[in-house]
Design a protein that fits this description.
This protein is of the alpha/beta class. The protein has ten helices and seven strands.
Length: about 260
């Protein structure tokens, strides 16, 4: 199994471009964050310093502030445009990469990361996250699994042989990397979250707005009319009463540094 991420420059560029419109279509991202916060609420830890690693436009910061009103929040993202979307005073902004954190050893009580780890190499990012945690500190993660956008992958297979959907890491890769980094797993869950659109063009537009478009694909030329019509017909096989679905295979993990 591979745990290689998408090219970093492509991901950063995609999220910088997506920042202004991101919140309008990030329903699945908010659902994943809400579920992670519910899992965190069951823990007894009362952190004084929390990092939101891969904070995006900052949706999770409000929930974290409400749950831990006495904690200092650090909003970390490697896309500068995402950090500029934050309301002032909510958290300290920090533009940085999860694989090279500018944080002192054992300086953080809790690290939150929702839908960011999939853009990293887990065996580089997780040791960095673990290094930054103090003993007894916790790591709270939501990330994408290999079933993400399987409808789009299946439809494209009927059109050409190019790879159009990134092969996100299986949960066991994340768990293994976390344990190898010295973390103890406290809880994990997995579920499929879905977004819908009325047609394929709208669905692809939403995926592009979320920043996760073609960052791992080998094809760069637009589809011709015949190929496009074939793709539309193949994707229509997945239609539901709610519209065309986009599935997000989501894995939640809570871990502790002994």
């Amino acid at each position: 199994m591979t745990d290689a991420p998408a090219p970093k420059r492509a991901v950063r560029k995609a999220f910088d471009r997506a920042a202004d419109a991101y919140d309008a279509v990030a329903t699945v991202q908010r659902s994943a964050s809400d579920h992670l916060l519910a899992m965190v609420a069951a823990q007894t830890l009362q952190p004084r310093r929390i990092v939101d690693a891969g904070c995006g436009t900052g949706y999770a910061l409000t929930g974290l502030q409400q749950r831990f009103p006495d904690a200092d929040l650090i909003a970390l993202d490697f896309a500068p445009a995402m950090l500029r979307r934050h309301p002032p005073g909510l958290a300290w902004p920090l533009c940085a990469d999860l694989e090279r954190l500018p944080l002192a050893d054992a300086s953080i009580d809790a690290i939150w990361s929702s839908y960011a780890l999939q853009w990293c190499h887990p065996r580089k990012a997780l040791p960095e996250l673990a290094r930054s945690l103090r003993p007894g500190g916790q790591l709270w993660i939501a990330t994408l699994g290999p079933g993400t956008l399987h409808e789009l992958r299946d439809a494209f297979r009927l059109v050409d042989s190019h790879e159009h959907v990134l092969p996100f890491q299986p949960p066991e890769v994340v768990e293994d990397a976390a344990e190898d980094a010295g973390l103890r797993i406290l809880a994990s869950e997995r579920d499929t979250l879905q977004a819908w659109a009325p047609d394929l063009r709208g669905l692809l537009s939403d995926i592009k707005t979320l920043g996760a478009h073609h960052t791992g694909a080998t094809r760069r030329t637009p589809l011709g009319k015949t190929a496009w019509n074939k793709l539309v017909k193949a994707y229509e096989m997945h239609r539901t009463p709610a519209g065309l679905p986009a599935s997000y295979d989501t894995f939640w993990l809570l871990a502790e540094k002994p």
